[in-house]
Design a protein that fits this description.
Elements: H1 4-10, E1 12-17, E2 25-31, H2 33-44, H3 53-59, H4 73-86, H5 97-100
Antiparallel strand pairs: 1-2
Protein name: Flagellar biosynthetic protein FlhB
Organism: Alkalimonas delamerensis
InterPro entries: T3SS_substrate_exporter, T3SS_substrate_exporter_C
Length: about 100
């Protein structure tokens, strides 16, 4: 059974940056106390955090500066899109989209 100290040592975090033009890239990663620091900085700056152990296992295999592999494009794109919605951000072309949907077709 792991103790809280062991859980903290095994904790890991990976931060991605997305500029809207190229694939997201790894800008920070760490384990233990460094992971806690990465999460604290993200929270302090209002950056949304997604905790997913399996996804993080894949991301921790990447090096700093690496872009995510094509196999992760869909899941990362969905997370980015969902984070935008949570922040109330929508593409300009979504303006009044509910009025343009034709359910009769």
């Amino acid at each position: 059974m792991s103790t809280p100290d062991n859980k903290r040592k095994n904790k890991s975090a990976t931060a991605l940056r997305y500029d809207g033009k190229t694939a997201p890239e790894v800008i920070a990663k760490g384990h233990g106390a460094l992971a806690d620091d990465i999460l604290a900085v993200a929270k302090a700056h209002g950056i949304l955090i997604h905790e997913d152990e399996e996804l993080n296992k894949l991301l921790t295999q990447l090096e700093l500066g690496d872009t995510i592999p094509k196999e992760l494009y869909v899941i990362i794109a969905e997370l980015i899109a969902f984070s935008y919605v949570l922040q109330g951000k929508f593409p300009d072309e979504w303006d009044n989209i509910h009025q343009r949907i034709d359910l009769k077709t």
